[in-house]
Amino acid sequence: MYRQYLSFFGKIQKLSSKCRMKSTAAVPKLTMSDGREIPALGLGTYLGFDKNGMVSSKDKQHRDLVLKAIDLGYRHFDTASIYNTEDEIGEAVEMKIAERVVTREDVFVTTKLWNTQHKQEEVASAVWDALEKSGLDYIDLYLMHWPIGLNADYSFSDVDFMETWRGLEDVHKLGLVKSIGVSNFNKEQLQRLLEEGSVRPVVLQIEVHPQMIQEDLISFARSEDITVMGYSPFGFLVERFGKQFPGPKMDDPVLMEIALKYGKTPAQVVLRWLVDRNVIPIPKTVNPKRLKENISIFDFKLEQDEIEKINRFNSNKRYTEPSFWQTHPHYPFEQVKDILPDPFKGLGTI
Ligand SMILES: NC(=O)C1=CN([C@@H]2O[C@H](COP(=O)(O)OP(=O)(O)OC[C@H]3O[C@@H](n4cnc5c(N)ncnc54)[C@H](OP(=O)(O)O)[C@@H]3O)[C@@H](O)[C@H]2O)C=CC1
Ligand SMILES: O=C1CO[C@H](CO)[C@@H](O)[C@@H]1O
């Protein structure tokens, strides 16, 4: 059995290196409810936490990665004020525009408002900050990162997310951001936004991977013409808030069998599973080989029964579960017993 596995895995490796050699096709686009187009795959740029807090790029490593990504065909970059990557993404975009590889209109940059700037009047200054850091003259998509308002010392603020949404509507009206949306909102919070807001959110960004398939929320978003972006597509591989979770790994027989059929890697199958469910994956990698692997997913399509096979991994397991905020009135997820320490405390207003 073990031998069979090894030869199976060997075949996958060969096939995947062959497919990595092929040139990448252009990333297709989806149309959002405001009529604007968004690339169907983006590059995640959250570099993680270490003992000193959020990880930042060193020696322009991340700028160089984004330069490579643009050469490979990536046109969509997902960042946030807390990721500390807005500056190097902007620098890379500017360089590629100067080289005439892309125009500003070819590139789509998503960034997010952090929880410590939720007062309506703070939103514009947060956007100006993002524009200054990135050197861009507008943001394509601006998301409220969480429905949770915090004070500068990370105590809970009483700012309601509808007040924050009005701030996003203001910057949208000013043209500083072309489209607005939200991240980590649950169905009831989205419903409230749709009922009370003047501008509809065009995008919902949530955690989506084989262990968190988000069937209900995705179908609700679809019924409201809200485009879904899926974060942590490889969530089952990573450690979050100091916790490692069990889950299907890349050598899972179900993923491997589908991968073998298409001459793809299990990682590519997972990304394609998101695309075929109309969810925009934003995989993060700092590895040049995986950068190419993750974009080479537009020359095959999963069958419905393959999508369902992957859906069966679902266990509603969240990797991003900031339980330290769970007593906040707008905490979007179910309550858990195991409350983790807050790693954001001390980062200040970013
Ligand atoms: N709105 C929100 O609250 C959140 C948004 N996000 C966004 O979503 C993005 C993606 O999510 P993220 O949690 O970073 O993690 P991912 O699930 O995208 O990636 C997890 C890890 O998988 C590895 N990996 C990437 N590609 C492959 C591959 N082909 N084969 C094997 N391993 C691979 C990467 O390591 P390596 O770099 O070594 O390749 C990475 O550290 C973030 O970067 C961020 O932009 C994420 C979390 C929350
Ligand atoms: O975007 C994010 C990146 O990951 C963090 C956790 O490690 C999240 O809390 C945050 O929302």
Automatic annotation (TrEMBL):
Q: Which Pfam families match?
A: Aldo_ket_red
Please give the superkingdom of this protein's source. Eukaryota
Q: Which GO terms describe its molecular function?
A: oxidoreductase activity, acting on the CH-OH group of donors, NAD or NADP as acceptor
Q: Does the keyword Oxidoreductase apply?
A: yes
Query: NADP-dependent oxidoreductase domain location, by residue?
Result: 41-313
Which segments does the entry list as coiled coil?
none
Write out the entry's keywords from A to Z: Oxidoreductase
What positions constitute the catalytic site?
83
Protein name per its UniProtKB record: NADP-dependent oxidoreductase domain-containing protein
Q: Which residues bind substrate?
A: 145
| Swiss-Prot/TrEMBL site (Lowers pKa of active site Tyr) positions | 112
